[in-house]
């Protein structure tokens, strides 16, 4: 049956983790996948999550199916976190929200829904560069991928003029995907003023905006500040679509928990939309898993655990910022050719180092240091114990 099925390529991000796992070296470092590690390089379970686990264990609730759109408390609390409790559209009951299999699942529901119902151009504009998985998620539902400029190699910053030009030039009513904060892979976000301009441009062009918010809290350590773009666009009347993930900010990677939402014109429209979102979800995975939703609802629903969680997000963000400072200092100390200020100015989990694919390969082959071939590093993979070796290895690779 399958003689003609070719070998598929390794995943550009998760394939790095697979290669890392096979490496026997005791010096090995994985700065590939964007998953938080503590100061000892270990996966980190948030204290607020452990407490919520205890509460759930005591409750011994049943394991019945959830509704297709998910756990009701979770969905309510998660959307308040994203949009803000005072969001008018939320209060009006005109946001259709469903639990999703984390951010990827939310994006898949989005593209599934759009491919069935969107009457505008069947094209999704993605930033260049973007998270690698965005492309197959869009293409697998038969939509076309187009790109807008985002990263300026010369300034190692945002190519805001290029971005605006491309979004303006896109056919009216195109779908524009925007990273809400902590852009992956570049770690470079528009400023609040630039977001305001983008809001106007996309509105004037009647574009449909799809936000991917995988890092709320990780960019600045402040969940409100990081939701600025999403909340501002909604305030300004955009009927956005939103993919929300709790993988990073609650450290719930393997629980696969998030939401997909759509801001509608009114409640009646929301009900119609939600009935069709259910039809997208049902054949994909029937209904979502229970545990992650219960964990998030327990934390967001308890003032005490919520406060604790906010402190923990800030702690993770601060440790990453400290690693940025340290890496910059070490690269300078080792007289590494080039300008490395961007390591400090970029935000969120990643730094887009500017290392070439050849340098990335050399780091893997000679130093057992693993990263994606675009030169992105997950700052969270660094700690006091490995940063010296990492910086020294990078320095050597750059010097050739
Ligand atoms: C990443 O970009 O490393 C993360 O979002 C993990 C993933 O699934 O790719």
From TrEMBL:
One Pfam match: Aminotran_1_2
Protein name: Aspartate aminotransferase
Lineage: Eukaryota, Fungi, Dikarya, Basidiomycota, Agaricomycotina
Aminotransferase class I/classII large domain mapped to chain residues: 27-393
Originating species: Kockovaella imperatae
Note: In eukaryotes there are cytoplasmic, mitochondrial and chloroplastic isozymes.
Enzyme class: transferase
Family: Belongs to the class-I pyridoxal-phosphate-dependent aminotransferase family.
Cofactor(s) required for function per UniProt: pyridoxal 5'-phosphate
Record-linked Gene3D superfamilies: Aspartate Aminotransferase, domain 1, Type I PLP-dependent aspartate aminotransferase-like (Major domain)
Keyword Protein transport: no
Reaction catalysis annotation: L-aspartate + 2-oxoglutarate = oxaloacetate + L-glutamate
């Amino acid at each position: 049956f399958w003689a003609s099925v070719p070998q598929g390529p390794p995943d550009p991000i998760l394939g790095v983790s697979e290669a890392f796992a096979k490496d026997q070296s005791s010096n090995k470092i994985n700065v590939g996948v964007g998953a938080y590690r503590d100061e000892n390089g270990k996966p980190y379970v948030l204290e607020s999550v452990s407490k919520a686990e205890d509460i759930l264990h005591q409750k011994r609730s049943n394991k019945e199916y959830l509704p297709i759109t998910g756990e009701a408390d979770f969905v309510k609390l998660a959307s308040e976190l994203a949009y803000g409790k005072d969001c008018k559209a939320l209060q009006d009951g005109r946001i259709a929200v469903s639990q999703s299999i984390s951010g990827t699942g939310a994006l898949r529901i989005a593209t599934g829904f759009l491919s069935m119902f969107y009457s505008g151009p069947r094209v999704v504009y993605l930033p260049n560069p973007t998270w690698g998985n965005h492309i197959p998620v869009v293409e697998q539902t038969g939509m076309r991928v187009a790109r807008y400029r985002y990263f300026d190699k010369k300034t190692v910053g945002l190519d805001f003029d290029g971005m605006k030009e491309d979004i303006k030039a896109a056919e009216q009513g195109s779908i524009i995907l925007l990273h809400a904060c902590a852009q992956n892979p570049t770690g470079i976000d528009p400023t609040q003023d630039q977001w305001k301009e983008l809001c106007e441009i996309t509105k004037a062009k009647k574009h449909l905006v799809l936000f991917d918010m995988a890092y709320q809290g990780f960019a600045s350590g402040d969940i409100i500040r990081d939701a600025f773009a999403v909340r501002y666009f909604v305030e300004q009347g955009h009927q956005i679509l939103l993919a929300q993930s709790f993988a990073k900010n609650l450290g719930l990677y393997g629980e696969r928990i998030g939401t997909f939402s759509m801001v509608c014109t009114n409640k009646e429209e929301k009900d119609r939309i939600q009935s069709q979102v259910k039809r997208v979800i049902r054949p994909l995975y029937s209904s979502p898993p229970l545990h992650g939703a219960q964990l998030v609802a327990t934390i967001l629903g308890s003032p005490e655990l919520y406060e604790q969680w906010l402190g923990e997000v800030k702690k993770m963000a601060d440790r990453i910022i400290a690693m940025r400072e340290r890496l910059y200092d070490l690269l300078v100390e080792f007289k590494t050719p080039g300008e490395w200020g961007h390591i400090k100015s970029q935000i969120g989990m990643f730094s887009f180092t500017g290392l070439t694919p050849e340098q990335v390969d050399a780091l893997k082959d000679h130093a057992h240091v693993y990263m994606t071939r675009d030169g992105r590093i997950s700052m969270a993979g660094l700690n006091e114990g490995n940063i010296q070796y990492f910086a020294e290895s990078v320095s050597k690779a750059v010097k050739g």
